[in-house]
Every structure is written in C-alpha cells, then in structure tokens.
Design a protein that fits this description.
Helix content is about 20%, strand content about 15%. The chain is an alpha+beta fold.
Length: about 280
C-alpha cells in the first residue's frame, strides 16, 4: 500500500492521484477535522436553541380576592389572571395547562391545544394534562382596570364534558387532586413562554357519615337526647297545669256561695232560732 501511494511512473501507480475524490477538494478541510467529534453535540444544541421557551417570573396561585367565596369546591377552583406577565408576546395565545401533581412532569410544551393529546375528555386517563381557557393579551390588560375582578374559575363548564368536539372544555374536575397549573404562551403552534407550575391545589371533599362527630360543644349525643326528652316532658306538664287552672277558674266563676248572717238559722233560714218559731 505504501508503494502504491508514492508511485508516479506507471498507470496503476497514478490511480490514487488521478481520482479527484482521493484528495481534498479544499485546503481548509484538514483544519476542520478536530471539530468532527463535537458535531453530534452541536446538532443537539441547535434544535434546543431554536425552540427555547422563556420562563417568566410568575407562579399561578389561588386568588386572594376578598369579595369571592368558594375558592375551592368539589370540582372547581379560582385562580388570579396572569396580568402583566406576557406583555412581550403581543401576538401570543395564552393557555392554561391543568395537570395532576403526579402527571405534570410528563406534559410536553410541544403538544398542541385542541388535539386528542391535550383534550379535557381524555384527562387523566390517557393524557397527563389538558389545555383550556385560551386568551390573548387583550383579555389580560395591564395594568388591570380599577374595580375589575380578575380571576379565572377552573372547572365551571358542564355542557362540554362528553363533547369530543370541544377538547379545550373547561369542565369540572373529577377528583380532589392535588392539581398543578401553569400558563403557556404560544405564537401559532410554537411555545414561546411559560410560567412555573403552581403549588398543589386540593379540592374540597364531602365527609363520610362515619367521620361526622357525634358531639356538639363537648356534649355527648346521649346528653342531647336526654335534654330533648326532658324539654318535651316539661312542656307537657306546663300545658297540664295551665289546663287545670283554666278548668278551676271557670268552675269557681259559675258557683254561688251563701253565708248566713248571725240572726238567721242556718237550717230554716229564719231570723230567729228554730225553737222560738218564726
């Protein structure tokens, strides 16, 4: 092989020199050879740089508005709107992502809203999170107008629970959670910014009959029953006394009492004793 590489006299010896592919086309190619081991790393970094999503400094939370009640129910909860959060993205659509705490890590920002992969109807059985309550910056003006109640109630729609044509349904939540939520801004189908995940949100649950306390202010159920029975007996006794007084009052009013004077005989009614005659 060494002889073939340096031979210049014969036709066979010139073969390596005559074929263009056997020698570098550009003198600078040799200088790029040390970069070849880094090529896979560069290929990995290029898509990441192209699809980078900005993490904005905001974390969704339950509203602290004092005028609202029922911040959490058995199927809903109320969040503050993300005002003054995505102002850099005037053309973006802002979506709310709802996940269980146990599935939030499996959600991908590349999943498009309005698809089976992010549909409310498939949550949580086959999708880790669903996307709902889309809005634009026009819906979240900054600063907020005075007097506005700037909240979002998650889980308030009931008409689209089973409607596959409404994958972005804001339907009622089916379990107590805990849930995590975040806001995601998309320009077209490209995610451009997102908030962090919220703290875990638990919904209210109804108490079972076994967990209901049988005491009230430190009094046992037996004492409450005894007090009730005594109250009823006292009411019956009081009613009997009132009836008795009414009866004797009427009888005394209808009777006549005769008291003889000293000069009358109690037996004959005469003004003198019986033996004296009248």
């Amino acid at each position: 092989m060494w002889a073939v590489g340096v031979t210049t006299g014969g036709s066979h010896g010139d073969a390596e020199l005559n074929y263009p592919h056997s020698r570098p086309r550009h003198p600078g190619v040799r200088t790029m050879l040390p970069l070849l081991p880094l090529l896979p790393l560069l290929l990995l970094l290029l898509p990441a740089a192209h699809g980078a999503v900005e993490r904005v400094g905001y974390t969704p939370s339950l509203t602290k508005s004092p005028v609202l009640e029922g911040l959490t129910t058995g199927s809903t909860f109320v969040l503050d709107q993300p005002r003054c959060v995505f102002d850099k993205y005037s053309n973006a659509d802002i979506w709310l992502v709802v996940a269980l705490e146990s599935t939030a890590a499996n959600f991908s920002n590349s999943v498009a809203p309005g698809t089976a992969e992010s549909a409310f109807q498939n949550f949580p059985n086959s999708v880790p999170a669903y996307m709902t309550l889309n809005a634009t910056l026009a819906n979240y003006p900054c600063p907020k107008p005075a007097g506005d109640i700037t909240v979002l109630r998650v889980g308030s729609e009931t008409s689209c629970i089973q409607d596959a044509a409404r994958p972005t349904c804001n339907g009622p939540l089916s379990g107590p959670g805990p849930y995590l939520v975040k806001f995601l801004a998309l320009e077209g189908s490209e995610p451009v910014a997102e908030t962090g995940w919220s703290q875990p949100i638990m919904l209210r649950t109804a108490k079972s009959s076994n967990s209901i306390s049988t005491t009230d202010g430190g009094h046992s159920a037996g004492m409450i029953a005894l007090t009730t029975i005594l109250s009823i007996l006292f009411a019956i006794l009081l009613a009997g006394l009132v009836a008795m007084f009414v009866f004797w009052g009427r009888r005394a009013k209808g009777s006549i009492t005769f008291t003889p004077s000293p000069g009358h005989s109690a037996l004959t009614g005469c003004p003198c004793p019986a033996w004296e005659g009248c």
